[in-house]
Amino acid sequence: MTTGRLCPRCGSSSHGRPWLRVDGRDHHVSLSRSGPHLVTVISAEPVGVDVESVAAVANRWDPALVLADGERAGTDEDRGRTWARKEAVLKRRGTGLATPMVDVLLAAESWRDLPGPPGYVVAVSPAGPGAGAP
């Protein structure tokens, strides 16, 4: 088994998307940390995952930086979920936050909410077409 990182933009192995190779087969890896929590997803296809503290997102929330035209996020939990969903999508795409969140229209993306610890939200974005379920 070998692991590493690879930046899809510059080709550097010192940062970028994590990867895993087992018995000659490549696997896609996504990980996220928030507070004491770590979430890791391994898949045969590109995947992204994100865990966020609802309170932390609420403290730095700026709808002009996050919401695409027509999107809304009324409560702190809605804001946390929107942030986690978008970050998961950007990780799956391989661009991370180099792509502005406002350029991600969640209705056109694939994502799912996962159960998280109290006060945290978790989203995963698997490969494939289709919109996630609100």
Distance between the termini: 37 Å
How are helices and strands ordered from N to C? Answer: EEEEEHHHEE
CATH class: Alpha Beta
Outline: globular
- Strand portion: 25-35%
- The helix-and-strand class reads alpha+beta
Q: Overall pLDDT, averaged?
A: 91
What's the main sheet like?
4 strands, antiparallel
Low-confidence stretches: none
Strand numbers in spatial order across the main sheet: 1-2-3-4
What portion of residues is helical? 10-25%
| Number of domain modules | 1
User: Could you say what the CATH architecture is?
Assistant: Alpha-Beta Complex
User: How many distinct beta strands?
Assistant: 7
Radius of gyration: 15 Å
Continuous helix count:
3
Question: Per CATH, what is the topology?
Answer: Ribosomal Protein L22, Chain A
Organism: Nocardioides alpinus
InterPro entries: 4-PPantetheinyl_Trfase_dom, 4-PPantetheinyl_Trfase_dom_sf
GO molecular function: holo-[acyl-carrier-protein] synthase activity; magnesium ion binding
Protein name: 4'-phosphopantetheinyl transferase
List keywords for this structure.
3-stranded antiparallel β-sheet; 7 strands; 4-stranded antiparallel β-sheet; alpha+beta; Ribosomal Protein L22, Chain A; single chain; 134 residues
Q: What secondary-structure arrangement, pairings included, does this model have?
A:
Layout: E1 2-6, E2 17-22, E3 25-34, E4 37-43, E5 47-53, H1 54-60, H2 63-66, H3 76-93, E6 112-114, E7 120-126
Antiparallel strand pairs: 1-2, 2-3, 3-4, 5-7, 6-7
Pfam families: ACPS
GO molecular function: holo-[acyl-carrier-protein] synthase activity; magnesium ion binding
Protein name: 4'-phosphopantetheinyl transferase
